[in-house]
Amino acid sequence: DGESSIMIIPEDVATFDDGLPRLYYVLRQLYYKMKDKFEFVFFVNDHTYVIPEHLYSYLENFRYDQDVYVGHALKNGDEVFNSGAAGYILSSHTIERLVHSIDNKTDTNCAVGNDNKWLQGNPGLVTAKCLHQTLHTDAIDTRDALHQHRFHAYGIVRMALGKLDNWYINKHNNLINFNENFDSTYGNLPDGDMCCSEQTISFHYVEAMEAKALYEIRNVLKQQPDISDKDLYTKYIEKLWPEDYSKLGGYSHRFPKLYKEEDFHRVIQVLRKI
């Protein structure tokens, strides 16, 4: 309905060590006070760049009155979960069922003792366990028909150049043929324009200046699709894209210079695609 608001989290649940109580507070607020105002919720960090029109288009594949838990699936030990960095979506129906399970204090799948600091700081893993073991709702393969990911746990430059950490690669390999949701191609993480779906929804580790650059450059490409790569770089990217690492997102890489032709073209191809 066009309304926007900010949810203020009380100081006693907003501490760094209270990740799970903080998430559960948000879920309860959504269900008990706002359930008539949304159909889906996209849980995402404040330094993740989101392309709203692609998100809306993707959500047309789902129903809010059915269970929905979608994002970028990874496997940690025995648990399959959606990356919190890339963001994940829950339907209003799933949030309702999740809150009821959380409020059932005897359900050990949906609660963690305060002494487990690691899980307190990684509430998405507890949520995934609760969804899987209690609600029988699992993460799925959300790649497009070409097996290209929509949700990304890194920025556009690292994705395009294939500069991915081994832990990330391994958590994909762990899902190869894991169940009916994941086939033999899930471990493939190509670089270049194959890295990312043309319907990409999110990039992680994108701070304010890089987000502004992405937004403005995408608008330029919509209005001037035939602009040359050189003009796109010299007139817009060079002026808008942050160079200083303090202004880039954590773990982000600088945009390749024009003279680094191979790397430059790989990133440009992805920019044009999305």
Descriptive labels:
10 helices, 9% strand, 3-stranded antiparallel beta sheet, 39% helix, mainly alpha, 3-stranded mixed beta sheet, 274 residues
Structure description:
With 274 residues, this protein is mainly alpha-helical. Helices cover 39% and strands 9% of the residues. The protein has ten helices and eight strands. Strands 1-6-3 form a three-stranded antiparallel beta sheet. A three-stranded mixed beta sheet has the order 2-8-7, with no helix packed on it. It has a two-stranded antiparallel ribbon with strand order 4-5. A hairpin with a 2-residue loop joins β4 and β5 (79-82). The longest helix is centred in the first third of the chain and has 16 residues, at 19-34. The radius of gyration is 19 Å and the shape is globular.
The dominant shape is: globular
- Give me the Rg, rounded: 19 Å
Structural class: mainly alpha
- Count of DSSP helices? 10
Uncertain segments of ≥5 residues (pLDDT<50)?
none
- Helix and strand pattern: HEEHEEEEHHHEHHEHHH
> How far do the termini sit from each other?
27 Å
Strand order of the largest sheet: 1-6-3
- Determine the fraction of residues in helical runs and give it as a percent range: 25-40%
Number of strands: 8
**Main β-sheet: number of strands, strand sense, barrel status?**
3 strands, antiparallel
Mean pLDDT comes to 91
Strand content: 5-15%
